[in-house]
Amino acid sequence: MRTLVLLFGLLLYANAEAGTITSGSYLTQNGQGGMNFAGPGISGTGLSGDAGVLLFGDQAGQFATFRSEFSALAGTIFINSVEIPLLPHLTNSADFRFTGSLTLPSAGVDPGELFFVETPGTVTGTVRHCSPGPCTTYSLSGSGLALIRLTGNGLTGITSTQMSMVFGQPLAAVPEPSTLLLLTSVLAILIGSRLIRITSSLKSSCDSHYTDHA
User: Fold this and answer.
1) CA distance 144 to 25
2) Whole-prediction pTM
3) In angstroms, rounded to a whole number, what is the distance separating the alpha carbons of residues 100 and 200?
4) What is the pLDDT of residue 127?
5) Burial class (CB in 10 A: 0-12, 13-18, 19+), 211
6) Which tens digits make up the pLDDT trace of 54-74?
7) Torsion of CA 26, 19, 121, 178, to 10 degrees
């Protein structure tokens, strides 16, 4: 009997395919998650369900890893333009895991103090459906830019309760605010220096003009 059940299970999900998540976003906050994604032949819209963030390592300045697990309880998956609703069909499901690593801020672990750290992350997921049939399992993978919200805790160091990820976004494509400020400052200095040179040149020309007519 046990062998028959196993064989039935293997036949049920005999159709297995792999796909890539190339765009979309994910956000978890206050124990809830939301996600939209797209890839060749598959996409998901309005996915929502329970989610959370685990931070492994909590000491300022140290290396840490993060993980967020998300099980979509509502929303719609589209596979080759065929609509796959997650509810009320219990035979349809979508589960995702987001992982990555980061270096925690080296200072400022006062209770309640907030930090935001950008770091590369990966996403893996499994979409299973039997309605409409035939039963199929999709294994999904992708990468993107994660934004981790960290909170200082006077007792244990640093904790995290919220994260977001934009899929298909390399880290270099989104400069950090400090980098943007530096670039803006350098640009302002260059513009100011150019204006000073232009003003000095005009003044010298005017002085020379009046001297020639004196």
Assistant:
1) 9
2) 0.70
3) 53
4) 92
5) exposed
6) 989 877 788 899 999 999 989
7) -70
